[in-house]
Amino acid sequence: MNLFKDSDRSFDSCLKCTACSSRCPVASVRPDFPGPKQCGPDGERLRLKSPDFLDEALKYCTGCKRCEVACPSDVHISDIIADAKARYGKGNKFKIREFLLSHTDLMGTMTRGTAPIVNAVTKTKTAKVVMHKALGIDQRRQFPPYAHKSFRSWYKAELEDKQVFARNVSYFHGCFVNYNLPELGIDTIKVLNAMNIGVQLLKKEKCCGVPLVANGFHKKAKANARFNTDSIEQAIDSGSECVISTSSSCAFMLREDYPRMLGETEGNPHQQVNYITRFLTQEFKNGNKPELKPVNLRVGYHSPCHLIRSGGVLHTLSLLREIPGLQLHQLESNCCGIAGTYGFKKENYNTSQDIGEPLFHQIEEGEFDYIVTDCETCKMQIEMSTSAEVIHPVSLLARALDV
Amino acid sequence: MKHDCLVIGGGLAGLTAGIRCAEAGLKVTVLSSGESALTFSSGAIDVLGMDTSGMPVRHPFQGIGRLIVEQPDHPYALLGGNSVYRALDWFQGQVAETGLKLVTAKILEENHWRLTAAGALRPAWLSQPTAGTLDWDFDEIRRVVFVNFTGFLDFMPELASAGLKTNKAFEHVCVSSLNITLPLENGSGATADTMRSTQLARAIGESDIELISSTLLEKVGDADLVAMPACLNVAGRNWLEELRRRTGLNIIEVATLPPSVHGIGLLRALRSRFAALGGFYVPAVPVKQGVVSNGRVESVQTPDDILEANHYILTTGSYFSKGMTSKQQGVSEPVFGLDMQASEEFCDSRFLAREGHGFNRTGVVFNKHLQPSINGQSIENLHVAGALLAGYDPIIEGSGGGVAISTAWKAAGEVIEKMGL
Which domain of life does this protein belong to (chain B) (predicted)? Predict the structure, then answer.
């Protein structure tokens, strides 16, 4: 029998140095979480012998990947834990909750035309109590409001076939821009058009799969990966230079996780996916930089975990530094605690808020006009837990455009 | 966008260089990869602990004067005792700006003793405030107790007390250990044996502190020194001060096995100081290669980008941090392929040889401006600092922290001067 079949063998490189444990946001606030070293490489050895060694505490891992950033030996700690949860986990107690939280595109579609009602209802105490008791979604959590009109319908009505540019990119807008924050999509188009680049949408797109993987719907995630990959391929074939995303987590999934999920490490189109600030800094460097007027604001920059993991903090910082007049302060790198759908679950709410506490404190102390961050769930968490308003780097850049 | 200065490496040396550049008004970015070795460290800074004959050094800056006469290739020889002192004094001030008040000995320009988790005494220049400083002679110490919380694996009081007993100065001192079983009020039912020091701090609550206080008063009320694992002052909860107040005992914290609360605290302070001065810290971006032509670095390559700066400071550390790579063919510096100076003997067959191992003295060759060279040609806009420098042994000398800080301070000074600031 091959014990190692399907197992991520990178655990063999673990030196037991504990660098990962010192960086784990969950371990720092939960004394009962054994930390990434024990849950990942240490535990994997045992689980290969028998699944009985599965530690229930694995469920507390948020998948932030800070352990992988810390690891000096390139052990895929977070992936090992995620795979173990998927392979040996006993399933979720709140199946319906996991389904509702993770099927972001389906939820978005269902609110079409009913957004004002849904927004009003999710704010009511009764709805919150019902969701808390029946579903296990914490009643203290605020839901992001749904937009009255989806980004895709706006694009179809306003823009389709109206952009005439020699260069084009395709935009994977993701669920959040489509259903919750179309303004960000509009800003993205505004910025790219100002740089003489047209923006096309993919023929069709499904949820990137981040929340699906986090909630144990691996088959569905893989199906979405296949679907989106085909769309990306099609876009590239029809003349798009690349695919951009304004969500640091969607971009990470599309670019880094899809090849692994689909078992296609070569000749795939995933390397054509760029997180927006990566693409923009490259363009600026090549001389394609729009006129920028001063934006006299004091902002704090929060780096999302998945952007850190992909090495993208450099791009966002470089981009923000191009905006004249902007007073930019880099916040200490702390996880905000929400970790996608993690913080919505009632058993995780306190952990989530405890993790975020040092960040919230810094934000309140800093007297910023805005907090800038790349991730939609970081935005939800910071806006719910502090008095700050959170803005995406591209929206800030859009303000600097001289139009 | 062109940076004034790119610092490659985000550990003690890299952040020190970054802070000095940022303080001078330079646009500086620190590129880091992996985790700084500070998270494993005691959070104390040694400057020079042992002289060349293996004797402890009481006056480190005078000791540097003697050391560099014997070893003119030592990195300290570029600075001299006075400049090393200035660098360390400046460093202490920068860290203090964040609220972390590192302490020195009570007597001017003297080392103090620092107690380790193995019960050894090490001469140190700066220590964490809760670790305290032990005076040069121990006349007033008659009883020492190492206390642990039953089950906690990263601190072994029996080992520590046995270690301290081997020290001649403690021959007639009563040294013992004590384990206290805690309820761990905030531990969510988990026990100490599954926790790291960073977690134990969170698990301790008021009832635990009450139990520790009463046990100490009952069992070791006459101790002159009580040493506990460093896990009592985390996330704004200063239980140590509370214990000192309730018992009136002289209680100190000893840095544990990693992860080390004290080391992490120092790293956090440095990052926060750097950010406050307007510096940018970029995590998870390893520099793969440098492009050098005509004695100048033109750019450096990361997995995603080609980055350009006027000046570069290389602080990628030693073997563990991948600042140096050791293979059968020899030791090399992987980013630029800098000239190396290797010791004749790579290692001593005795693991704990007093003379140290050659591989620790092996490192990058540098000139008096801390510029390295490739095939004998100096690189004008590149400076090196910290653990990858040749010509010193941080372990045998007890000089790792001091060399990292003072050479980084000097490297930054060279850049600032060249930028005309």
Answer: Bacteria
The mean pLDDT value for A170-178 works out to 97
Residue ranges of domains in chain B: 3-16+24-98+264-279+312-418, 137-251
Helix, strand, coil shares, percent, chain B, to 5: 35, 20, 45
- Given phi > 0 = left and psi -120 to 50 = alpha, else beta, which region is A268? beta
Residue B311, SS3?
Answer: strand
3-class SS of residue A327 = strand
Query: B137-251 domain in CATH 3.30.43?
Result: no
The number of beta carbons lying within 10 Å of the beta carbon of residue B70 is 10
Q: List the beta bridge partners of residue B312.
A: B6, B382
CATH assignment of B3-16+24-98+264-279+312-418, given 2.50.20, 3.50.50, 1.20.120, 1.10.8? Answer: 3.50.50
DSSP class of A178: I
pLDDT, tens digit, 9 for 90 and up, residues A133-142: 888 999 999 8
Summarised one tens digit per residue, pLDDT across range B183-214 is: 999 998 899 998 999 899 889 999 999 999 99
Q: Which residue is listed with tokens 């440095």? A: B270
With beta carbons less than 8 A apart as the criterion, state whether B383 and B414 touch. yes
Contact A72 B322 (CB under 8 A): yes
Determine what percent of chain A is predicted with pLDDT higher than 90.
70
Q: What residues in chain A have their Cβ under 8 A from chain B's Cβ atoms?
A: 17-19, 21-23, 27-35, 38, 69-72, 278, 281-282, 284-285, 303, 308-311, 313-315, 317-318, 321-322, 329-333, 358
DSSP three-state, residue A117 = helix
For B274, nearest residue in chain A (alpha carbons): A330
Closest-CA residue of A relative to B280 is: A330
B275 and A31 within 8 Å at the Cβ level: the answer is no
Q: For A43-150, where are the alpha helices, taking DSSP H only?
A: 43-49, 66-70, 77-88, 95-102, 104-110, 115-123, 125-130
Measure the CA dihedral A31/A32/A33/A34, to 10°. 90
Average pLDDT of chain A is 92
What span, in angstroms and rounded, lies between the C-alpha atoms of B207 and B223?
23
Domains of chain A in start order, with CATH, are: 9-88 (1.10.1060.10), 95-135 (no CATH), 151-284 (3.40.50), 291-400 (3.40.50)
Closest Cβ–Cβ partner in A27, A70, A303 for B198:
A27
Residues of B with Cβ-Cβ distance to A21 under 8 angstroms: 196, 198, 259
